[in-house]
Amino acid sequence: MKALPEGEGGFLAFSDLLTGYRLAEALLLAHEAGIFAAVGEEGCTGRELCSRTGWEPVNGERFLRCLCGLGLLHHGEDRYTLSPFAATYLVPASRHYQGQTLAFEHQLRRSWQQLGPTLTTGQRVFATGDKSPEALRQAFAGYLGAMDEAARIRAAELWAALPIPASAGVLLDLGAGSGAFLAAFLGRYPGWHGIFCDLPEVVAERGWHQRLAGMTDRLAWCACNLLADEPSDFDAIGDRSCELVLLSNLVHCQGPTETARLLARAAAKTARKGALVVHDFFSDTDWRGALYDLHMMLNTYNGQTYPREEIAAMAAAGGFSHCASQQLPSGSTALVFTRDRRILAGFTGAPST
């Protein structure tokens, strides 16, 4: 596993690790204050920015210079302008804007303050309290929106990394969420059809997955709880009928027993010459997977990140004895499982096991 910090004994690495919270605080405050939207395409003077945010000019300018040092703003003559990084991720008009992600991360700071008590008690401590049905719906919509912003980027990475050998087939997306991965796949492979599978309340809220609106002729909807035993739409999907089955950011949400059940149900729907793709963070890839495991510990009842070998063992129980691992540019990892080694070569150039 690639650790953080890199190298041995470097004080700079120690210092960056220790003070990482300062970077997050500066980024979140700048976004919440509307700095990046205010700068816009034309740029803005420091005095104008401080006036718009209500900041005292001297200290406000110090903060703006810090944002320049972080690579979020540029300063030339008397104007501040956006860096390419900020223009991509921090401006509402950008297609890669991460505004809901930033808002969601702001909420998560409260759960991380409970890390010590969680370790002491051996169970989740942080809770958001009781909510009305409408408040729960809004909270889930905010969560789904944050996940969608990252999913749009990672979906493009995933399908670029895993060239699909067949010109037609069916993609079953389990835990499809906003539909970002399904939409990106169907847009890339017009000969394929997709099955959107998620909880009934997610399927019912079609407004949460608008990008699929133009693909209804190639799309089926499956409302079910994959961890429940009750009859559902999932039963109507034929066994071994789907050439590709995807579980993206799903296995980390629950414990080993539930995860093994998910993989078994996914395996049952995967065609004999098809592939099962598990896209997630894993505890043995790098420090991101290890840190994400703590995030699951703090914010779910029994979720965790798994070592790749453990997921491979669960998949092997469904007959998937061959696996390839591919880490994506933004830090997540795709595991591709097949029953036939020869089929695996068509999905990825990574070595199979």
Folded structure, characterized:
With 353 residues, the protein is of the alpha/beta class. The protein folds into two domains: 11-89, Arc Repressor Mutant, subunit A; 148-347, Rossmann fold (3-Layer(aba) Sandwich). Helix content is 45%, strand content 16%. It contains 15 helices and nine strands. The protein has helices at residues 11-18, 20-32, 35-39, 46-53, 57-69, 84-89, 99-112, 115-121, 133-161, 180-188, 200-204, 256-269, 287-299, 308-316, 341-347; strands at residues 73-76, 79-82, 169-174, 192-198, 219-223, 242-248, 270-280, 322-327, 333-338. Strands 5-4-3-6-7-9-8 form a seven-stranded mixed beta sheet, sandwiched between helices. The longest helix has 29 residues, at 133-161. It is globular and about 65 Å long. The model has no long low-confidence stretch (mean pLDDT 91).
List keywords for this structure.
353 residues; alpha/beta; Rossmann fold; 2 domains; 7-stranded mixed β-sheet; two-stranded antiparallel ribbon; 15 helices; 45% helix; globular
Distance between the termini: 18 Å
Largest sheet, spatial ordering of strands: 5-4-3-6-7-9-8
Radius of gyration: 22 Å
> What does the overall shape look like?
globular
In round numbers, the mean pLDDT is 91
CATH architecture of the largest domain: 3-Layer(aba) Sandwich
